[in-house]
């Protein structure tokens, strides 16, 4: 396969962090990205070049381009963490094969991307393109955090932003493993759909009686783990209403306001803990064998239909500057970028 | 030793919790306690009766009588968690001996107290009365939390309310084990005294430049553990200025305002954790052999002068209703009650 000298890429306009905490919503990408023709990157030892077939748009990507994510931006470097494509250069046993990957050296929102050779995830032939393009960030986060739920020993767990793609993956895991998901969402319209997916209970944060509705559910089901992508006061209130030894596991910050710790004594007397989860850390800390088994289960779940990827839009790379903000406003699905 | 039928005791006027979160300061004890003549309690199987020689007044006692502690009050039952005295009844190998104890069945602010036979701590003859009366709550909390500091592997740790009795015990441990204490206090006047005790750095929360002063200290010393008895915004700000993998270990709530989590992303990207420490839980979870070794070290530290108990006042039991609030206002020392 001949590789051209230049490619189209959405490159970042800024270095480092912005210092803002606005969350993953965007109304325009112009302050952060620019579509440019740039040289195709050259893989160094241990790296591979991948021709991108389809790239994912995750909340973490939007946090990242805005300078609010846990690693610094690199000016003039293409954005996009995740995608699927074909290995076209570098030192890899998967040369010419279809792989999912997390881009570490040159982002996926481009014709070509670059990553570590050892981080490639070969795809089953029967895995659909959208499932393959998004099989790392959300599915591995869901699997890893569901391990925390299983280790808690409780028959139930709480998740908020439950209507998100990640939320639906977690609900599916709870349904299939018999650990009742208590789904927290903003809008009542989402409740029926989440119950269909397998939510045992649905709590609506826009409901004034939310905490009163939650009380009997928490008493009866005794969840220990709160998987939190929001980080607002409603989440804190829910945490403080949970039973002894509850753990508030934060993995995202959709809210832009800081929650207050109104019941700190519970950390002392009820052994409650507030902590975070970051997939990047989990992948570093997880043995390759375990990682391989988890990835095999992820692909099996997609192919068998236990999980499904709801596609909100597939935006051509050339249209991203104009069309991405509107596409990300679709609540019930995931956005992809097609080079 | 003949045991009378009745005794003087400071009994509680309320059951359960108050729902307030005012902290351990008191201006009067009249809403909570009453000095009464009540029957001397009768030990059941596994319990012992102790003639109280000297009882301690800890912040947890004040939280407790106000209904703000982690266990419910019992109306008409004597207050007071900790003390030293002589075993006078019940089934114990320590009959007639001097023991320190944590009262579980009838409090120490009385002529007689009652506790579990297996919870007695025999005292070395050379251990002073004030050291013996307060050898459980503060010293064991200090030893247990300093274990967390040692396990962190850092060369430094942060403690606030550093001028408290517990703070001084922690500073002494840091000094003796070569882990630099960074002491946080409210008033600049306390700084010299804390440096004398062994504080490597002193931060003053009333200083407007506190965070600016803290920055180079945190960069250089890289503390991982923040031992927190205050729970205010200054504590949260300090936590968010600490390096990766910092743990905010809350064990008290001197502040009456809830802190805000202004940098939740640090829980995710910097693996920071917020948790609590409760001595009662630690004692339940700690093997008796380890507990014995820790208690032996506590007594050795007091007798050898590595630790000392600063006595603010010894209030006669008959004068507590009138004199206790003023005595607890003395900043630099501990209050005891003498039956």
TrEMBL record, chains A, B:
SMART domains assigned to the protein according to its UniProt record, in alphabetical order: PKS_ER (SM00829)
Alphabetically ordered keywords of this record: NADP, Oxidoreductase
Oxidoreductase among keywords: yes
KW NADP (keyword) present: yes
Database matches in Gene3D superfamilies: Medium-chain alcohol dehydrogenases, catalytic domain (3.90.180.10), NAD(P)-binding Rossmann-like Domain (3.40.50.720)
Domain Enoyl reductase (ER): 24-337
Highest rank taxon of the organism: Bacteria
GO molecular function, one term: NADPH binding
Residues spanning the membrane: none
PANTHER family named in the record: QUINONE OXIDOREDUCTASE PIG3 (PTHR48106:SF18), QUINONE OXIDOREDUCTASE PIG3-RELATED (PTHR48106)
Protein name, as recorded: NADPH:quinone reductase
């Amino acid at each position: 396969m001949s590789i051209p000298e230049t490619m189209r890429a959405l490159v970042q306009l800024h270095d480092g962090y912005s210092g803002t905490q606005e969350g993953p919503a965007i109304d325009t990408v112009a302050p952060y990205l620019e579509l440019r023709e740039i040289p195709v990157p050259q893989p160094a030892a241990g790296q591979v070049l991948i021709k991108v077939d389809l790239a994912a748009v995750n909340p973490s990507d939007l946090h990242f381009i805005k300078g609010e994510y846990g690693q610094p931006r690199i000016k003039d470097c293409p954005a996009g963490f995740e995608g699927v494509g074909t290995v076209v250069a570098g030192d890899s046993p998967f040369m010419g094969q279809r792989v999912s990957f997390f881009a570490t050296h040159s982002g996926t929102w481009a014709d070509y991307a670059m990553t570590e050779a050892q981080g490639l995830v070969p795809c089953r032939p029967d895995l659909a393109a959208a499932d393959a393009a998004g099989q790392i960030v959300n599915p591995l986060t869901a699997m890893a955090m569901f391990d925390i739920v299983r280790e808690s020993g409780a028959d139930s767990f709480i998740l908020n932003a439950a209507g998100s793609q990640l939320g639906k993956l977690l609900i599916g895991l709870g349904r299939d493993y018999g650990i009742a998901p208590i789904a927290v969402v903003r809008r009542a319209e989402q409740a029926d759909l989440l119950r269909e997916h397998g939510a045992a209970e649905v709590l609506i944060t826009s409901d004034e009686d939310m905490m009163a509705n939650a009380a009997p559910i928490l008493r009866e089901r005794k969840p220990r783990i709160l998987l939190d992508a929001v980080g607002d006061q409603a989440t804190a209130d829910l945490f403080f209403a949970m039973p002894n030894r509850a753990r508030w596991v934060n993995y995202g910050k959709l809210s832009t306001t800081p929650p207050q710790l109104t019941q700190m004594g519970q950390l002392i007397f009820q052994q409650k803990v507030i902590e975070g989860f970051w997939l990047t850390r989990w992948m570093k800390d997880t043995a390759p064998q375990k990682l391989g088994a988890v990835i095999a289960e992820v692909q099996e779940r997609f192919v068998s239909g236990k999980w499904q990827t709801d596609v909100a839009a597939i935006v051509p790379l050339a249209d991203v500057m104009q069309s991405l903000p509107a596409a990300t406003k679709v609540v019930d699905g995931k956005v992809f970028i097609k080079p």
